[in-house]
Amino acid sequence: MNDSKRPQFLLVHGAWHGSWCWGEFQDVLADRGWTSHTVDLPSVVAEDSEGKLPGLLDDARVIREKIDAIDAPLVVVGHSYGGAPVTQATPGAANVSHVVYVSGFALDEGESLTTCFGGEAPDLATVEGVIPVRENPAFTLYNDVPEDKRDAALARLLPQTALSFAEPVSQAGWKTLPTSYVLCDDDQSLPPAYQEPFAAHCGATYHLPSGHTPLLSMPDKLADLLEQIAHGTAA
C-alpha cells in the first residue's frame, strides 16, 4: 500500500480509562509499521470532581478535533464507552476511512448509555457528579488480562462523569461510514448478547475469544484483525 494512502489509527479509550491503556497496543502497531494516535477523553475525571462536568458531547468534540488535525486516512477505533462519542464525532469526517467498534457502544441517534438498554432518560440539567469504577473490575473488565498488567491498569482507573452516560448522541457515523464490530466472546462487562444489537449496526462483525479488553489481553490478535480491516482483507 502506498504510504501516502496507508491509513493511520485513532484509538479511543473507554470509561474510567485514559490513553495510557493503548500503550502496549500502540507498540505492537508501531512494530508492524503503523502510525497510531490516541486521545484523553475529558469525561474521565479526578476522584474529587463535583458539579457539572464534561459529557459525551465534550468527548466527541475532542475526538473530532483530533480527527481534523490528522492529515491522513484514519481508521477510528472505539473501545467500549469510547464507541459512543466516536459515533457522534465521525459523521462528515472526510478522512475517516473506517470505524471499528471493539465491544463498543454503536448507539443510534437519540440513544445514550443510560437509555440504550431500556433505561429512562434523565433530565440532563440535573445530571452531575461521577460514576465510580464499576464493581469488581478485575473480573468485569480484565478477566483474561495477565495479572501484572491487570494490577497496573486497576491502579490507574478513575471516575467517569455521570453526564457522559446520560447524554445522547444526535448523529451516528455508522450510518454513512464503513464500519466493523469486534465482538468479544468472553466479555464479562458487555456480554455478547448486549454487543449484538450494536454489531447489527455495522457492515461486518468479527469475533475475538477475549474478555472486555483485548487491547491488554490479546494485543497481537487485535492488531492482526485491525490490520486486516485497514487493508480491506478481513474475512
Automatic annotation (TrEMBL):
Database matches in InterPro entries: AB_hydrolase_1, AB_hydrolase_fold, Sec-Metab_Biosynth_Hydrolase
Molecular functions (GO terms): catalytic activity
Span of the signal peptide: none
Domain AB hydrolase-1 stretches: 9-224
Pfam families in UniProt: Abhydrolase_6
Recorded superkingdom: Bacteria
Chain segments annotated as transmembrane: none
SUPFAM superfamilies per record: alpha/beta-Hydrolases
Protein name per UniProt: AB hydrolase-1 domain-containing protein
Lineage start: Bacteria, Bacillati, Actinomycetota, Actinomycetes, Kitasatosporales
